[in-house]
Design goal:
It is a single chain. The chain has about 300 residues and is α/β, with parallel strands linked by helices. Helix content is about 55%, strand content about 10%. It has 13 helices and 7 strands. The protein has a 7-stranded mixed β-sheet with strand order 2-1-3-4-5-6-7, sandwiched between helices. It is elongated and about 70 Å long. The two termini are about 15 Å apart. The relative contact order is 0.08. The N terminus is likely disordered. Bound molecules: nicotinamide-adenine-dinucleotide. The site of nicotinamide-adenine-dinucleotide has 25 residues, from helix 2 and helix 4.
């Protein structure tokens, strides 16, 4: 299978596309995502150094001959930390892995005169391989000097998606901020209602179990990360408030027992999804079959 072939490739390492690159310094390299990327770089034959929160007194020494610096620190510290990277060699590539892109890419362009690229891996540190995962990237400066990096990421199995920082952050308002926030509120609601989780699961169809898993997995992760993502922009808050307003409008239908309006609204959404509604029905059936197989293993 795909997973097995990548796992075995991991054991033997990956092809190195830039063997003459000077050391890669990962700022925040001891963190979750930082250490994943350190491992991938090392498995690909690069020399990797980690610059952790206690290492700034020897930062000059670590950064002096860097061929690439990758920033992977908590979101709320990212721009302050990028601002400390003003003394990199001019040909050094400056990159980051932050979940938001406008602020960090702007900060990198301001502090460094050489090549700059913003990356956003659309996955957490818990994945088994990069196969089928997406990495969004924003060109910053001198793209010709980091094409090898983009190709290296593809060798690890990921698909690249080029996007402007602004469009990225707009998309993330829906894909991340709103979605994580609704999961957060749903979790909060469950905790307050305090049903017996085991009983709920034993009554659940596979799709509800999957939904519950989607919500529950959030709370196995880092609260600070999600607070930072959700509160990273005023657009996020505006979007969440519009959602809240629609929620309220929809409840009016319920109060009025207004099934006609409900059905009309349902039809509008069905229209909006178009052919995707049918595709998603079939796709989710496939996913559920897989989920079912793995829970009965
Ligand atoms: P993390 O907290 O696990 O790692 C951050 C690391 O930065 C820690 O090791 C911390 O000690 C270190 N650090 C803190 N202050 C520092 C300083 N002044 N100098 C150097 N290092 C410092 O967080 P994470 O989940 O790995 O997230 C890191 C970045 O990756 C964030 O920008 C986040 O948006 C992005 N990201 C995370 C995920 C995810 O699911 N975890 C997914 C996509 C992108």
């Amino acid at each position: 299978t795909m997973r097995e072939s990548y796992a075995s490739e991991n054991d033997s390492g990956f092809k190195c596309l830039k063997p003459d690159l000077r050391p890669i310094v990962v700022v925040g390299g001891h963190g979750q995502l930082g250490s994943l990327f350190c491992r991938l770089f090392e498995l690909s034959g690069y020399q990797v150094r980690k610059l952790g929160s206690q290492d700034w007194d020897r930062a000059d020494e670590l950064l002096d001959d860097a061929g690439m610096v990758v920033v992977s620190v908590p979101i709320n510290l990212t721009e302050t930390i990028i601002a400390k990277l003003g003394n990199l060699p001019e040909d050094c590539i400056l990159a980051d892995l932050t979940s938001v892109k406008s602020g960090p890419v702007q900060a990198m362009l301001e502090v460094h005169r050489g090549p700059v690229v913003g990356l956003h891996p659309m996955f957490g540190p818990d994945i088994a391989s990069l196969a089928k995962q997406v990495v969004a990237y924003c060109d910053g400066r001198n793209p010709e000097s980091y094409q090898w990096l983009l190709e290296q990421i593809q060798i690890w199995g990921a698909t690249l998606n080029r996007i402007s920082a602004i469009e990225h952050d707009e998309g993330m308002t829906l894909i991340q901020a709103l979605r994580h926030f609704t999961s957060f509120v749903y979790g909060l609601h469950l905790a307050e209602e305090d049903p017996k989780l085991e009983q709920l699961l034993s009554l659940s169809s596979p799709i509800y179990r999957l939904e519950l898993a989607m919500v529950g997995r959030l709370f196995a992760q880092d609260a600070q990360l999600y607070a930072d993502i959700i509160m990273s922009s005023p657009q996020n808050l505006a979007m969440i408030k519009r959602f809240h307003q629609r929620f309220g409008e929809a409840i009016v239908m319920l109060d009025n027992q207004d099934k006609e309006t409900f059905k009309q609204a349902f039809g509008r959404v069905e229209n909006w999804f178009g052919d995707y509604a049918q595709h998603f029905l079939i796709e989710s059936q496939g996913l559920l079959r897989q989920a079912n197989d793995s829970t009965h293993r």
